[in-house]
Structure formats: C-alpha cells, structure tokens
Amino acid sequence: MSNCKKLTIIGVLLSTGAAALWIHTWSLGPPTTTARNAIAVGDGSSMVPPASARTRLRDTRMTHAFDELDAASEEELPVTLEKIVATWPEHEIQQTVAELLDQPADDSRLEILRVSLVDRWSGKDPASAARWASSLPESPDRLQTITKVALIWNESNPAEAWNWALSLAPESTRQSALLALGYEVTREDPALALDRLAVLENGPDRLRFIEHAISNLAATDPDGALNRTSQLTDPVEKNHAMAALAIAWSDSDPFAAATLAVEEMGAGPEQDRAFVAVTQRWAQQDPDAARAWVEEFPDGSLKAGAMEQIVQQAAAAKESNRLPDTK
I want to staple 135 with a disulfide (CB 3.0 to 4.6 A). Which of 39, 40, 140, 299 is the partner? Predict the structure, then answer.
C-alpha cells in the first residue's frame, strides 16, 4: 500500500473517530506479541483461537478486504473502508479482532481494519467491547483502546460509560479514561464536568481540565463560572480557573474581565498571562478604552505587557486599513 493511501486512510479514521488509537499505534510501531495474543470475549474468557484459525485469518473475507483496499483509488478509500466494516458479519467481529491482534503488525491494513472493527463493535455492544479492552495486558495500546471504547459508549449511555471508567485499573488508566469523558461532557454541560472534579487526581491534567471547563462555562454563563471558580479551595487551581474565566469573559465584557484579572487573581505568571490576553482582546474591540484603563496602572511588568499588546493591535489595525480591497 502506498504512503499516500496510508495517509488517506488516516484521514478516514480521523473522521470516524478512530484517530487516537490509530495515530498512537502508527507512531509506536508493532505491539508486543503478548499484547497481540491477549484478548477476551464479553464474559472475560479466553478468545485466542487455535493456531490453524489464527493463521487462516478468515481467508476469503480477509483477503478480499485487503484486495479491495489495495485496488481503491485515494478518492475511493474512505467509502471502501466504510463498506468493508459495515458489511462484516456482526457475529464474526470479535473473532476477527482476535485474529488480527495475533498477526504481525507490519502491515498497515491489519491495523486499519482492526481499529475500524473495534469502533463498530463498541457502537453495537459497548459493554462487551469494554470488558475485552479491560482484559488486554497493560500497554499504551490498551490505554488508547480503553479511551476510545469509553468515548463511543458515552454516545449511547454516558452514565454507564462513566461508571465503567471509574472501575478501571490501574489508576493511570482510570484517570485517562475519566479525563477523556470529562472533556466530552464539557462540550455540552461544563457545569456537570466541574461536578466530577472530585474523582480526578491533582496535577497538570486536572489543572488543564479545570481551565477548559471554566472557559466553556464562561462563554455562556460568566456569573456561573465565577461562582464555580470561587468554590475552588486549592489556591493554584483557583488562580488558573480565574485566568481561564477572565480570558473567556473578555470577548463579551473586557472591562469586567480585566478587573477580575487584576483584583481577584494572585500576582504571578498566571495573572500576567490573563491580563495581557484580556487587554489584547479589549484592544481589538475598543483600543482607546483599553489604553485609558491600562495607563492608570503603576509602572511594572503587568502594565508594560498590556501596553505592548495595545500598540501591536493598533499597528495591526493600521496595516489592515492600508491593504487594498481585493473584493
């Protein structure tokens, strides 16, 4: 298969939601023999087929699928892959995935087909796919697969997907799955995502999640975001949340956002970052008001950084006005 076709198939997987697992496995290379050999059916029992079956790879169907992928043009590849996966007999998917895992991973077609079939399996029977993913031996492959199954399960039953993620081990796997689901929840209900903070471990991942959730909530409910930020007890988390709130709020009320950054945040890099970002947005909307407000501040790095943003925005606006109208 040509490199162009491989890249096109990666694009297909991006559109179908299989990007995380595929990109990870593509970059790391072949999984270990142990990882390929270990797989379980929905009830957790062994699913590794006899040697004769493992080498057979459902000869006719698999060979035909690979022939179709090789014969398809770059434009035809997305439709071809979708057709192959959609028409695969449902009762054979689990066994096929087992066989694909047990094969040498030096053929990109094996990985493409396996990832796509796992996606379909997760959509049809997420509980079974989840039990299988949990039974895989500890490896980066297992983590990526668990995360993907959790996200697909979340589409049909968020509560069950969340409860499954809570049961995962080890803790690093549990944390990754919970974070992935938390970010997904943030898209629709950032307040609910913030309610789930208690189960997340302290650290950089949790900080980034707080910033993301507060920013999303501030876009539609800045007062609610301020209330949730005020409830945070950890000073570092609170300062990061205040910065995210101020930056998001600056699009609708830059004066309130700038005031928040100056009066509610502790001095330090986060405050500087927030105030400069708010000033930049304010200068785009009302440069004179932004400049007048910043000029009232005492000399220092905060004022200097904000004034630099105002000057840059004024220069950019002036240059834009000089450009000829190409319409």
Answer: 40
Task: Give the closest residue to 197 by CA, choosing from 159, 239, 237, 169.
Answer: 237
Both tokens of 178, joined, read 């919970």
pLDDT digits (tens, 9 = 90+) for 27-44: 333 333 333 333 333 343
Tell me how far CA of residue 202 lies from CA of 172, 183, 211, 215, 319, in angstroms: 12, 16, 14, 19, 46
Beta-bridge partners for 46: 40
**Residue count of the chain:** 327
Q: State pLDDT tens for residues 252-295.
A: 999 999 999 989 998 889 998 998 899 888 988 898 998 998 88
Full-prediction pTM beyond 0.85?
no
The token duo for 102 is 């047990």
Residues 153 and 160: beta-carbon distance below 8 Å: yes
Eight-state DSSP code of residue 74? T
Query: Could you write out the DSSP letters of every residue in 101-139?
Result: HTS-TT-HHHHHHHHHHHHHHHHH-HHHHHHHHHHSPSS
Q: How far apart are CA 133 and CA 158, in angstroms?
A: 18
Query: 275 and 305 in contact (C-beta within 8 Å)?
Result: yes
Cis peptide before 170, with omega less than 30 degrees from 0? yes
